[in-house]
Design brief:
- It is built from five helices and ten strands.
- It is of the alpha+beta class.
- The chain has a single domain, classed as Sandwich (Jelly Rolls).
- A six-stranded mixed beta sheet has the order 1-2-8-5-10-3. Strands 4-9-6-7 form a four-stranded antiparallel beta sheet, with no helix packed on it.
- The relative contact order is 0.23.
Length: 221
């Protein structure tokens, strides 16, 4: 009985100290960048909960000799339902999982037009660019109210084509824009918001890879 109580106390203490870390909001636009970091550097960078960009990552998502630069929208739909491709994604990206990871998912995306303003609600969210260059508009967490998100974390405004007189809080929004080139990865922290946009060429191919740890699953708010 004493051992059980002791164990419960230890778990409660761990959760108590993990809660503020899991829900910490970074509200500055510092950007970290590293060329093909090892696991320790990678985790240390993401632990700062800043926008992080990684270049020259040794990831090969070629499928049956078809390189991602040749993926078409129809082929992307096929691959999203393909178990062999899915297994290859996990084999290539498991290295970048959260410590104590208990769930993960991925999805290929064809970006044919600007994405909606999106709230990033995964604890670890990696976006890998496979084809063409994209522009990403990024908004830190304290900008949320100015972007007219509702309680379900959905915003109905078109940020770049909205009447600012009708939505006056938009005049106070601060954001940054970054370019993500093929085979670069960006980590967008929990609670940040973003818009994805093509630069010149349509049908950009992206891969999202998300993780939750045992702590984030329990403690995220």
């Amino acid at each position: 009985m004493k051992r059980t109580i002791f164990l419960i106390v230890i778990i409660c203490v761990i959760l108590y100290f993990q809660y503020p870390y899991v829900n910490y909001e970074n509200n500055n636009y510092d950007i970290l960048q590293f060329n093909n970091p090892n696991k320790s550097i990678f985790e240390n960078m993401l632990s700062e909960k800043k926008i992080s960009i990684f270049t020259n990552m040794p990831i090969d998502l070629t499928y049956k000799d078809i390189q991602p630069s040749y993926f078409t929208p129809d082929f992307v739909n096929v691959l999203n339902a393909n178990k062999d491709f899915s297994n290859n994604v996990y084999n290539q990206l498991n290295y970048y999982n959260l410590p104590l990871c208990i769930s993960k998912s991925h999805k290929l995306i064809v970006l044919d037009k600007a994405s909606p303003l999106t709230f990033q609600n995964n604890y670890r969210f990696l976006l890998l660019n496979l084809k063409n260059t994209i522009k990403i508009s990024l908004f830190y967490p304290s900008q949320k109210d100015n972007l007219y998100f509702n309680k379900n974390n959905i915003s109905t405004i078109d940020f770049y084509n909205t009447d600012y007189n009708k939505f006056p809080k938009l005049n106070d929004v601060k954001f940054i824009e970054v370019l993500l080139h093929p085979y670069q990865i960006i980590s967008i922290p929990f609670k940040w918001m973003y818009i994805l946009n093509n630069i010149d060429e349509p049908d950009t191919i992206l891969l999202t890879y998300t993780n939750e740890s045992i702590f984030s699953r329990i403690l995220k708010r």
